Amino acid sequence: GQLSFVVGSHVWIEDPEVAWLDGEIQESRNGEITVIHESGSKVVSKSANMYPKDPEFPPNGVEDMTRLAYLHEPGVLQNLQVRYAMNEIYTYTGNILIAVNPFKRLPHLSETSTMAKYKGAAFGEQSPHPFAIASSAYSKMINEGKSQSILVSGESGAGKTESTKMLMHYLAFLGGRKATEGRSVEQQVLESNPVLEAFGNAKTVRNNNSSRFGKFVEIQFDQKGRISGAAIRTYLLERSRVCQVSDPERNYHCFYMLCAAPKEDIDKYKLGNPRKFHYLNQSNCIELDGLDDSKEYIATKRAMEVVGISSDEQDAIFRIVAAVLHLGNIEFVKGREEELDSSQPKDEKSYFHLKTAAELFMCDEKSLEDSFCKRVMVTRGDTITKSLDPNAAALSRDALAKIVYSRLFDWIVEKINNTIGQDPDSIHLIGVLDIYGFESFKTNSFEQFCINLTNEKLQQHFNQHVFKMEQEEYTKEEIDWSYIEFVDNQDVLDLIEKKPGGIIALLDEACMFPRSTHETFAEKLYQTFKDNKRFSKPKLSRTDFTVNHYAGDVTYQTDFFLDKNKDYVVPEHAALLSASKCPFVSGLFPPLPEETTKSTKFSSIANQFKQQLQSLLETLNATEPHYIRCVKPNNLLKPGIFENNNVLQQLRCGGVMEAIRISCAGYPTRKNFDEFVQRFTILEPKVLKACPNEVTACKRLLERANLKDYQIGKTKVFLRAGQMAELDACRAEVLGRSACVIQKKARMFIARKHYVLVQLSAIEIQRVARGLHYVNHL
Ligand SMILES: Nc1ncnc2c1ncn2[C@@H]1O[C@H](COP(=O)(O)OP(=O)(O)OP(=O)(O)O)[C@@H](O)[C@H]1O
């Protein structure tokens, strides 16, 4: 409040560079405050742009932000920063865990002795840690019999996958069995990580080991609380990366591993230097520091074995990976049939790669060539064969590479699921969601659109959970509390996915009209949503659109939306590969049932994704959620650097600031009456005898501690953020004083005893001495 802005006190002032700057108030006049910074620079600003600084901010920060005496953005930031500098990367905001990526190994955080510390410990008893979240989820599942979920989010490179792995290790630690015959479920779940990473992770600008898919791992438990099964669901693998890599990123790890395989494998797959392959050499980045692709190849094969992928299957998988690389090297030129727009492989080299790809796929070489250069059209019952120009042929080649790769990835996921096995009798599960965070780049395409839809959905889930749970609790306890406005993002969700009329519906419509282009699609969006508050058309563009997401505005470029949304498998490609002599390859392209081939040639990626999300949310809604927000402290991916603005942005996007706002606005700390009295009875030991009931006792204790703004519910005491800390301080003080009294009494007792003893001894000595004296006299 205003009172805090007195001359001489310290404040946080908004600063474009470091977000919040510390300064001392020099003068305050007519609402204009002059602040002087350590460096000597002066700033004059309005009080609205500054926050009071906590004069007693603990030098090591606090483990739970809601315990901060001054709960505001700069305070939160300072707390995270101070802790980060001490390698305390985990901090709570109520029961949300914030994890700041250390970008260096901190082994003490993951060793077995640390795991043991969290086992059975109550939440908050130990320092903040993903193990505490997992532990709390596990005991809730056991004690309350309710399924749980842990949602890990954050931007690329923030540490989601690393945190997820820690959670899984810990759940395996809690619910695992001692070495049984064969591989245990938990071992297979853990070993699925390296396999999925080999095929679904790549180096990007933002992360050297970026997961290019979302993942939900469902761990099933039996009645005794032991892991009895698991299922992995994946979302939206980035397909475009297979054929298109921009510098300095890489394609999926498996391609480079295979090029570094032992000689006999290289010969078998006719591979060699990765720089020779178009799908890899579009980027200059081939090798990664600290990553030995040849070792990774061996390690991946070993992990594949653990998750039940036989050596024959491994051979088929790598044959397909190699075939994809060869496909990329087939170039096309104009064909000989001058009168038509035709194409053919460019030269000997292209024919070599075509032949090799066909051998590896075990399909007919000529049909493979035709599937690129020709297209069969069916019009009014007639079939016409149309030639494609070199450009279109190359696109068709890329389409084949992408569809084969994505089906291969799906096969691997399904195989892992089959091996691990589901437990049909499982009663409870803990789901762990590792999914891409909100994205907003210079150019945002269809992928960002889908990713941000996911985040809108999860944000709504988060809001509903945090807000509605709170609200329900307040209503249940019948306490007087007028809630701050509920920030619901349903309007953004409607804009995107309402049926009919939402952006996805319009996109699907555009994809079905042969004549639509991204321009006509954009035009349609502008017309439809011209009055929508969440939608706008950027002034300088004719095809971009901006969505006002919960985390800020994102402008999307529609250029490739239509293509990327079409999940259309070219029938020639499907026919070719389902005729492969290799059962593995043909298995990836099962023949479609008759009706669907005709009517729904088109299926929309966005729509499928929307349905996947729907089912994910249904699963999540049936569980009690726990949240881990990962934060990336800098974009250099280096330890020890904490960029304020960057972190702040992520806290806002992850709903952390929102959660803090809710906490501030309400009464985040609550205790049952009996627990409360028990904890604080020391403030007035006879309180229970003096009061007619527990409620009055609670009130009396609160008065003792000089607290006013609290609420008494039906079963609980509700406290403002930080009040618990005040009560604890009073308690500590009383305890301290009591200790003094006890010590005093004890010391007195000992001293007295000693004194009495000495006195008695003295008397005795005197007596004896006198006696002797007397005897001598005699
Ligand atoms: N707890 C940790 N300890 C040490 N290093 C970490 C930790 N968390 C993350 N890192 C480092 O940061 C990198 C990125 O983390 P991670 O792959 O988990 O990010 P992510 O959020 O899953 O990113 P993406 O969305 O791109 O997959 C890791 O490869 C690792 O080097």
Model description:
The protein is an alpha+beta fold and 778 residues long. The protein folds into five domains: 2-52, SH3 type barrels; 76-240 and 423-438 and 622-664, 3-Layer(aba) Sandwich (Kinesin), CATH 3.40.850.10; 253-414, Up-down Bundle (Four Helix Bundle (Hemerythrin (Met), subunit A)), CATH 1.20.120.720; 446-567 and 602-619, Methane Monooxygenase Hydroxylase, Chain G, domain 1 (Up-down Bundle), CATH 1.20.58; 673-778, Single alpha-helices involved in coiled-coils or other helix-helix interfaces. The protein contains 28 helices and 24 strands. The strands form seven sheets. A seven-stranded mixed sheet has the order 6-7-21-8-17-11-12, with helices on both faces. Strands 4-3-2-1-5 form a five-stranded antiparallel sheet. A hairpin with a 7-residue loop joins strand 18 and strand 19 (544-549). The radius of gyration is 34 Å and the shape is elongated. The model has no long low-confidence stretch (mean pLDDT 87).
